Amino acid sequence: MAPWDIFHTGVAERLDISVGIVIVGTGLLLLLLWIPLRQKPGLGTILNALEIGLMVNVSKQFFGETNNLAVRLLLVLAGLVVVGIGTAMYLGSDLGSGPRDGIMLGMTKRKFFGRFLSIRLARTLIEVTVLVAGQLLGGKVGIGTVVFMFGIGPLVQFLLPLVSVRQSQHA
Q1: Is 115 helix (H, G, I), strand (E, B) or coil?
Q2: Predicted confidence band at 52 (pLDDT cuts at 50, 70, 90)?
Q3: Which residues cross the membrane (predicted)?
Q4: What pTM value is reported for the model?
């Protein structure tokens, strides 16, 4: 599972509610962090905040788990690539980022310790932070979690300029 999934699952188990509801609630709370980062919501922000959680609840009914290590590794790598491409495409459309990605983009526009952060570094810092929180909530970390945590930031940074509608300032 990705770090955000570990976090969402941990909160859901602690509160005894669905993961989808936690995703929506977390997204709405994260929008408050946009204020100091001066991020502006768009259509994509609202759709992402509300629909992702609902789709997770629906999709969990159709997909199971596998114990086959080769299949699991293939799914981790395929998932990383699909999420990386999807993230770059929707951010590149310039219709508004989701709550989590808005924090990442906001972090790239503010100086930290005298310098601006790259998407790669901002996303990795967020993933590490969320993973620690998820572990404190009882989440279990696997090799896929670590691969995603360190792979998604560099992948999005690489892909974003390639799929953006306009030349991106974020990379």
Answers
A1: strand
A2: confident
A3: 17-35, 69-91, 143-165
A4: 0.87
Secondary structure in 3-state letters for 5-57: HHHHHHHHHHHCCCHHHHHHHHHHHHHHHHHHHCCCCCHHHHHHHHHHHHHHH
The token pair at 24 is 């929506």
| Residue 64, token pair as written in the block | 């199971």
Residue of 122, 87, 93, 90 whose CA lies nearest to 105: 122
Crossing angle of helices 69-92 and 143-163, rounded to 10°: 30
Q: Tens of pLDDT along 94-111?
A: 888 999 999 999 999 988
CA distance 169 to 123: 16
Residue with tokens 């009914």: 61
Predicted local confidence at residue 168, as pLDDT: 46
Q: Which helix (H) or strand (E) holds 156?
A: helix 143-163
Exposure b/e, 117-145, CB count within 10 A at least 16 = b = bbbbbbbbebbeebbebbbebebeeeebb
Query: Which of 108, 140, 104 has its CA nearest to residue 2?
Result: 140
Backbone angles phi, psi at 26, to 5 degrees: -65, -45
Q: Where are the domains of the chain?
A: 3-163
